[in-house]
Amino acid sequence: MDLKKLNKFIKFMDQNNLSELEIEEDKQRIRLKKYEGQKPQISYQQLPDKGEKKPKEQKDESLTEIKSPMVGTFYRAPSPEAKPYAEVGNAVGADDVICIIEAMKVMNEIKAETNGQIAQILAEDGQPVEFGQTLFTIKR
Question: Is the terminal CB of the chain with fewer CB neighbours within 10 Å at N or C?
């Protein structure tokens, strides 16, 4: 998608006071998201051909996904100068706090829910997360 067209969509969002816009054309999907006081964030996805079949992903049964129980802002540490709750490779217990999600000015501690080792951290510190978004994977 060309830049002129993208700028038209951003202007359209501003004129109509939209916080999110998703456009799908040809084999591309563009999602524009604007947060209070910020410029729109853009995500781009190349869509598969209609006749093209996606290979089935094989799920690793030894990995447990820790998903966000709410919409909010993801934080890896209790304060900006503090050490993160969890790093890739850390051993965690089911009751260990691994992050915080701030929702409506309330800090909600998120626990590992299972014993294991942090395999991946899939959310960015200080960024918004959606309900059901995978935050971590834990290898059991």
Answer: C
Q: Check: CB of residue 51 under 8 Å from CB of residue 27.
A: no
Position 27 scores a pLDDT of: 74
pTM of the model: 0.56
Q: What are the tokens at 132?
A: 């059901």
Instruction: Name all contacts of 28-35 with Cβ < 8 Å and 24+ positions apart.
Output: 28/1, 30/1, 30/6, 35/128
The domains located in the chain, with CATH, are 3-46 (no CATH), 63-139 (2.40.50.100)
Give residue 99's identity as a one-letter amino acid code: C
pLDDT band at 92 (very low <50, low <70, confident <90, very high): very high
Contact 121, 135 (CB under 8 A): yes
